[in-house]
């Protein structure tokens, strides 16, 4: 089968011909229909989990996937052949990922039956970004009518967060770089947009909201920039960063909740997303559909952190 893999940590991804996997006990063999690209994919090949989980090489990339169960290993009870599933395929050993024509996944992984109202290609864009958005909002605990500033709003996580926040009656302020992005984010639920190329974000927010915003989600800033952005949050508000560069002491001094945020993959979160998707209230922001041969270039683009919407590999 064809798969995108690396031969060692730090190597450039390439399309390889590798053996079709065989499901072990407790695992599913998935005929992959599509896989979603996330920043965590290239962090894995950079070794972010080295020493924390076993790895195998060639390491097949890909955390998010969707497809059809082709076969099940011994002891599997949650799923059967023919089921359409989606979720996070990451498991030990790291290297049996979703960027392949076939993948094996433990039935206990963060996977669930795919939503019925969307295609498997769209479903592949949901798991990590969707669960991150859902859990970010759950952690912030904002109320209807309160204000939320999203820095780095145009990517997959920001696109989902804007929509879910709007459903909760939250006033979303999304950062953008041009008019096209502003139009797109308004369509996805943002109440207003801030073009960071026209003037500094802090200056614009301070003018529009001199008393501060209630919540901040920062998906792109370094430690110094995140600390500066938290100065825009009201005392008693909340701020979260997905890049693990928050200083808890600085937040405490400002009387702000939050800090570093890590997504917890879970079937429960996927089921919540499935319910929302099946009601037609969540648009899946698939901006780019690519083939396996285009993945190395897409990974290189993801490293720049300037993605818009989601890129999905169609197999």
List its traits.
315 residues; alpha/beta; six-stranded parallel sheet; 17 strands
Write the layout of secondary structure elements.
Layout (H helix, E strand, L loop, with lengths): L1 E5 L7 E4 L9 E10 L2 H7 L9 E6 L3 E9 L11 E5 L5 E3 L5 E5 L4 E3 L6 H4 L3 H14 L6 E5 L4 H12 L3 E6 L2 H9 L4 E4 L5 H8 L4 E6 L4 H8 L2 E9 L6 H6 L3 E4 L6 H12 L7 E5 L4 H8 L7 E5 L1
Parallel strand pairs: 4-7, 10-11, 10-13, 11-12, 13-14, 14-15, 16-17
Antiparallel strand pairs: 1-2, 1-4, 3-5, 3-8, 3-17, 5-6, 6-9
Task: Please describe what this structure looks like.
The protein is α/β, with parallel strands linked by helices. It folds into two domains: 2-125 and 285-314, Quinone Oxidoreductase, Chain A, domain 1; 129-260, 3-Layer(aba) Sandwich (Rossmann fold). The protein contains ten helices and 17 strands. Strands 3, 5, 6, 8, 9, 16 and 17 form a seven-stranded mixed beta sheet that branches. A six-stranded parallel beta sheet has the order 12-11-10-13-14-15, with helices on both faces. Helix 8 links the parallel strand 14 and strand 15. Helix 3 packs across helix 4 (156-167). The longest helix has 14 residues, at 127-140. It starts with a strand and ends with a strand. The model has no long low-confidence stretch (mean pLDDT 96).
